[in-house]
Amino acid sequence: MASSVNPPEPASLPAQLIHRYRRLFAFYDRDGDGRHTLGGDFEPVAARLAERWQGRTTPFPDLLRLLLDTYRHENKRRDGNHDGQVDQGEFVASHRRVFATFNLDPEAARVFIARSAGGFFTVLDLDGDGVLELNDLAAFAAAYGHPTEGIAENLNGMLAALGLPPDRLPREAFLTLVEQYWFDPSPGAPGRQLFDGVGLA
Ligand SMILES: [Ca+2]
Ligand SMILES: [Ca+2]
Ligand SMILES: [Ca+2]
Question: Is the pLDDT of residue 161 over 60?
Answer without folding.
Answer: yes
